[in-house]
Amino acid sequence: MRILGITIPEEKRLEIGLTVIFGIGRARAHKILKDADVDFGAKPKDVSVDDENNIRSLVEKYRLEGDLRREVSGNIKRLKDIKAYRGTRHAKGLPSRGQRTKTNTRTKRGNIRKTMGTGRRKVEKT
Question: Which fold does the domain 2-59 belong to in CATH?
């Protein structure tokens, strides 16, 4: 099953498989399958061609994949251009929503900056 040029995994349930598409999470996948009148637990290989086309038409109503990625990156670029606080945080690769950075934010800053214990030098005993 291919939607918007993306192959939906054949062995996963449809409610999970649809989340492979950028812009579709669990809630939107549930809404699409409910509107298409398809069982959430059905697998893509077991779905009929009519149901598949119905799902495809419902999915194409939303702004997804390339268009959505372009819109998000455009929004971030706009924030950087107007030198907003959130834009500068994006540019520096730091969290933009007020989280602390002394500890945590490993995913955003990278795993390179490890804490080094207490920061005190070890004194050799002689």
Answer: Helicase, Ruva Protein; domain 3 (1.10.8)
Distance CA 105, CA 27 (A): 27
State the DSSP H helix or E strand holding residue 2, giving kind and residue range, or none if neither: strand 2-3
CA 124 – CA 42 distance, rounded (Å) = 66
- Neighbour tally for 12: CB within 10 Å: 14
pLDDT tens, position by position, 74-115: 999 999 999 999 999 999 988 889 888 887 777 777 766 666
In this structure, whether the domain defined by 66-104 belongs to CATH 3.30.70.100 is answered with no
Q: What angle do CA 57, 58, 62 make, to 5 degrees?
A: 110
Scanning the structure block, which residue is given the tokens 């399958």?
33
